[in-house]
Amino acid sequence: MTFLPVDRSDGSVEFSVTVYPRASRSAIVGIREDALLVRVTAPPLEDEANAALVRTLAAALDLPARRITIIAGKRQRRKRLRIAGLTSAELLERLERYCGSLA
Fold first, then answer.
1. What is the pLDDT along the chain (103 residues), one digit of tens a residue?
2. Strands 6-7 and 68-72: what pairing?
3. Closest CA to 15 of 26, 62, 25, 94
């Protein structure tokens, strides 16, 4: 499988993320199979890692954090996210700008 964000009819995009908490620094580190890989410095306690994930993505994608919602997997490493007001093409373009080639 490959990373394929899904455009929704409401003008949002959904995609899978795998989060690695307690990393030395927070960053998007690439793609593995069908999920974006994100490392965060926060521990997986009391939603700290989830909040760090949203902040990291918001900063990397140059978006307000309020547009990013965790829609599934709040207590798991594997999560499903939705970003309002962004298409899959725009998401991939911003990820390439941040990470370089995603291939």
1. 588 899 999 999 999 999 999 999 999 998 888 999 999 999 999 899 999 999 999 999 999 999 999 999 999 999 999 999 999 999 999 998 887 765 4
2. unpaired
3. 94
- pTM of the model as a whole: 0.92
List beta partners, residue 12.
Answer: 84
| Domain boundaries defined on the chain | 6-99
- Which is nearest to 61 in space by CA: 31, 27, 25? 27
What are the distances in angstroms from CA 83 to CA 6, 24, 78?
11, 26, 16
Looking at the chain, how many residues does it have?
103
The CATH superfamily of 6-99 is YggU-like (3.30.1200.10)
3-state secondary structure of 59: helix
Q: How far apart are CA 53 and CA 9, in angstroms?
A: 25
Cβ-based burial of 20 (10 A; exposed 0-12, middle 13-18, buried ≥19): middle
